[in-house]
Write a structure and sequence with these properties.
By secondary structure, the protein is an alpha+beta fold. It has six helices and ten strands. An eight-stranded mixed beta sheet has the order 1-2-3-4-5-6-8-7, with helices on both faces. A two-stranded antiparallel sheet has the order 9-10. It is globular and about 45 Å long.
Length: about 260
């Protein structure tokens, strides 16, 4: 089993998904506002169920290329969002994916730290050389968030995906292991070097107000299952794996989008 250890930062931590994360996870994918900047249209209940089942099964795949982790507060194990990494099938590259923070999450404003923790793990334990991410080009809050994660601008991918009846451009950013390591914090270096716990957490050297970093994500394309990784997943009536959609996460920011009246 290819499980990621808990990755702890100053303001949040990442852990593997559990079966009891089902309700908030599927709530994200079926929510009209929270799917606004996703690379897919809003899912129905059956599609969201199958997406969760596939994400829960990821630690049991060999080799593991998809990492969808739960975001939690440092002192609370409650699921408040997701963060992901997709390892590409060529070279030594990966995409940051699937960052969503629920409205009112105690870690709001620190979503870029989730990306930094997962990059530290990727550059260290996974041996990656290059990580990239992207956001819809019309999401103007994202540039400082990408910089806060330690990424630099690269390109614009024209009409990369279609949602809500429109084609969308995506602005991409990237970094390599040597350049990212030069601006990593002491905590991030302990994760990268595999010695986590030997240094106290510290704030990233660059801060930003909005809570997200995200990218194009092909990470949830296999068939849905009813039991994932030995953990029972509630199966709603009428679920069909043929109805499942890939979770193509391009930019998932909730701050300033979610109206509590819509929940």
């Amino acid at each position: 089993m290819n499980r990621v250890p808990e990755l702890c930062g100053k303001h949040l931590r990442l852990r593997e998904l559990r079966a009891d994360d089902y309700q908030p996870f599927t709530r994200i994918l079926t929510h009209r506002v929270l799917t606004r900047y996703l690379g897919i249209d809003r899912m129905d209940t059956a599609q969201a169920h199958d997406a969760f089942a596939r994400a829960l099964a990821q630690p049991h795949t060999h080799p593991r290329r998809k990492y969808t982790l739960a975001v939690c507060a440092p002192d609370n194990d409650t699921f408040v969002g997701t963060m992901g990494l997709l390892i590409e099938e060529y070279g030594s590259n990966a995409m940051l994916t699937s960052l969503v923070l629920l409205p009112g999450a105690p870690v709001s404003g620190h979503g870029h730290e989730a990306g930094r923790l997962l990059m530290a793990y990727g550059f260290g334990h996974l041996g990656l050389h290059r990580v990239w991410a992207g956001h819809r080009s019309d999401h103007h809050h994202m540039a400082p968030i990408m910089h806060a994660a330690g990424l630099r601008p690269e390109a614009t991918l024209h009409q990369l995906f279609r949602t809500q009846g429109c084609w969308h451009d995506v602005t991409t950013y990237a970094t390599t292991a040597p350049e990212w390591k030069r601006q990593a914090t002491a905590r991030e270096l302990t994760i990268l070097d595999g010695t986590e716990g030997s240094a106290p957490a510290e704030a990233p050297r660059v801060s930003a107000r909005p809570p997200a970093v995200g990218s194009h994500d092909r990470s949830l394309q296999e068939e849905g299952v009813g039991v994932a990784g030995g953990q029972a997943v509630p199966r709603p009536t009428g679920t069909s794996s043929a109805r499942a959609r890939s979770w193509t996460a391009v930019q998932l920011t909730t701050e300033g989008l979610a109206d509590p009246d819509h929940w």
